[in-house]
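Notes from the 1:1 (GR / supervisor)

We went over the backlog. Supervisor wanted to see one worked example end to end before approving the batch request, so GR pasted a single chain during the call. The sequence is below; no edits were made to it. Supervisor asked that the structure be written out right there so they could see what the output format looks like.
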Amino acid sequence: MWNGDVVVTILLVNSDQASAQQLNEQFQAAAIIPYTYTPPSTTTALATWPTLQEMIAASTRLVTFVASLDPASNTVAPYLLDEFTFVFENPFDVTNTSDFSCTPDRPPSVQGNTLSAIQSGRLPLMNHFLYIAQAFGIQTPNLGAINNTNAPSGTVGNLGTAASNCRSVYGKAPTFILVDFFDEGPAISTVDTLNGISAMGRISPVSARVVTSANSGAAFGKILFSRGILLWTISIAVVVLA
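Structure output shown during the call:
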């Protein structure tokens, strides 16, 4: 297993609608089930998450969210948590820099209602990536704008300003920030600012693109994810918690 002081979160988009049984088989093959975290309830959001140190001490250092996984029917692998039972997201299909918003978009039960989303106990996930509309309805990352999109400050649409806005709207910093190409910007600077830390001993994200920094006494919290090929098999990409 990875470094014993690291808490990892995986978010599986699950576009192929894999069942809990199918996913569980893969976790078994990888021999990582002993490290998974299962909350007291898998059908309702938690009022309080354990601290990093509590997870480390219990060796339950892997938290796994899966999109579109019915918790009521998941009896085989309770550690596979339905994303939208525990998380809410802002819109992700943005093609204009002025359209970034903190308003909840998913799940439908809190869509457009920030107060309801926060009061539900769900953790806020802030999507922040810019698309270009291509032919046949295809959207691709706007690489030409990536340095500003992921920047801690700058012109309209930068990550730092968007994160600050969402922190104000939610009354707390986003728990998760999802970006394209986390090594650009650099996106990690915004997360450091939200967490109030100056990271030390960090390896520059150049090839493996893996960066970690944590305060082990903090509550399970802010994590920056990078989307990409085989993303969710290496979603330890950045873990920075306040």
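Supervisor's comment: The first strand starts at residue 8 and ends at 12.
Batch request approved.
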